[in-house]
Amino acid sequence: MSLPVSILDLAHVGEGGIAESFTSSVELAQKAEGWGYTRIWFAEHHNMPSIASSATSVLIAHVAAQTKSIRLGAGGIMLPNHSPLQIAEQFGTLETLHPGRIDLGLGRAPGSDQNTMRALRRDPSAADAFPSDVQELQAYFEGQTRISGVNAYPGKNTNVPLYILGSSLFGARLAAALGLPYSFASHFAPQALEDAVRIYRREFKPSAALAKPYVIAGVNAIVADTQEEADRLALEARRRRVVSLVGRGQEFTAAEMDLLLDSPAGQQVANMFRYAAVGTPSVARAYLDEFALKADADELIVATQVTEREAWIRSYELLAGAMGLAPLA
User: Three-state DSSP class for 29?
Assistant: First the structure.
């Protein structure tokens, strides 16, 4: 199977701090461009000390300015945190500066906790307006504003491509009704993957934006030169995730973290990692081929939950070779 493969860069903050995270994102994008990945997306998260992509559009601009051809975008912008006009202006600016390279994935989750939602001045009911907000945003890009006398400058007539992100049946039905591509977050919320994709394909209505359904499925991948190294990196990733769920700033030994992995929080982490290719390049390729069929995907977007910078970049390098990717001409 030969599908487009893309990257979800989680902009992890390691021991080198936020500045090193940004440097790493640029380095990965420059190399991924040569390895043949289709796109790199960054996600909007807030009040998370381990993730540096909160100002998502700014980070996209920084990486785009130091690359040449790879598509870059948001996977996603949490639209209820913003006005559609502001997002149209931001991504209209990006598209004008980097024509033909910018994607805009849209989600309706807060990307934060309840206190952070308040700090963002987000109305808890804002998610209810997500479908109409998506249509308002799309209209700005198409030069068909829904609010008389209001246009996005920049943004008008830039036709930035929109993607609906989701981890439930709601997003699948919305993407189908609007005739937009759909990206399912199966890299951390795998439960509804098959049902959501089935509904999306069944209910899809062709639109000016998209003639037939297009599914991007998220999947974890940790690829190393040996199975032992991949397993070690995967264990560290699971330990780190469970500590982030229950740690509250505490320090744990490796033995204590392993006990946490046997707790209910650890079972939650195991479920989040349900879809994960862990191993050598051949093992990862076999897993991802099978996953793509299960997900009925047109494209895979890969998250590599590794915090060791060299191992993180090496994982994507090995995966590109395993999947037979080729750079754009």
Answer: helix
Whether omega before 154 lies within 30 degrees of 0, making that bond cis, reads: yes
Residue 182 near residue 214, CB atoms below 8 Å: yes
What does the buried/exposed string (b/e) look like for 43-57 if buried means 16 or more CB atoms within 10 Å of the residue's CB? bbbbebeebbbbebb
For residue 175, is pLDDT > 90? yes
Secondary structure of residue 16 in the 3-state scheme: coil
State how far the alpha carbon of 196 is from the alpha carbons of 30, 188, 289, in Å. 33, 15, 20
Helix (H) or strand (E) holding 261: helix 254-261
The two beta strands, 276-279 and 39-42, are unpaired
Q: Are 207 and 177 in contact (CB under 8 A)?
A: no
- Pick the residue with more confidence: 118 or 12? 12
CA dist., res. 215 & res. 194, Å (int) = 11
CA atoms within 13 Å, Cβ hemisphere of 201: 13
| Confidence bin at 248 (pLDDT 50/70/90) | low
Q: What is the pTM assigned to this prediction? A: 0.95
